């Protein structure tokens, strides 16, 4: 276990350090079901359009147009509802992840079926940043432990949090150490 403290902090860092805003999205595999749902919705819309424009004697025309009169929800309405749900699922999935901004860390998750949950943790609230477990966690001054959601670029999130922890004198458990964190490219340093 490696703990970074004030003594191991690089010179030139100060407590007013504010990192650039960066967003870390959830892993690709967690977004696949939303894209499968979107593909199924697109296929349904295509079948409805093809069925409406096919020959009147075909099976698809009979199913989509002729049998539509007896249904409670028509084929067009069903395809529209399915498409709206699929687009909403993709958008909802893309909102999850971790955002690091100047004043702290923001955890974005989806609880239950539809309810998004955004929790913000400010740098002064943090007593310890835990990097040596499967999910990055933040221990707060009031004794709570906030586990951040899994992200696709875990190494980038760890490097960013280590830099901020060193600059703001927040203890770190685990991590790679500041000597192993790559510096930002020269073009980013010039823009700052």
Can you walk through the features of this model?
By secondary structure, the protein is α+β, with helices and mostly antiparallel strands. The chain folds into two domains: 3-20 and 123-191, no CATH class; 30-93, no CATH class. Helix content is 39%, strand content 21%. The protein is built from five helices and nine strands. It has helices at 28-53, 59-66, 75-94, 154-168, 186-191, and strands at 3-4, 22-25, 97-101, 104-111, 115-122, 126-130, 137-140, 145-147, 172-173. The strands form two sheets. Strands 1-9-6-7-8 form a five-stranded mixed β-sheet. A hairpin with a 6-residue loop joins strand 6 and strand 7 (137-140). The chain is rod-shaped. Mean pLDDT is 82; it is low at 6-14.
Query: End-to-end distance, in Å?
Result: 33 Å
Number of discrete helical segments: 5
Describe the global form: rod-shaped
Strand order of the largest sheet: 1-9-6-7-8
Strand content: 15-25%
Low-confidence stretches: 6-14
Task: Tally the beta strands.
Answer: 9
Gyration radius, to the nearest Å? Answer: 25 Å
Supply the number of structural domains.
2
Indicate the structural class.
alpha+beta
If you average the pLDDT, what whole number results? 82
Q: Work out the helicity level.
A: 25-40%
Largest sheet: 5 strands, mixed
Order of helices and strands: EEHHHEEEEEEHEH
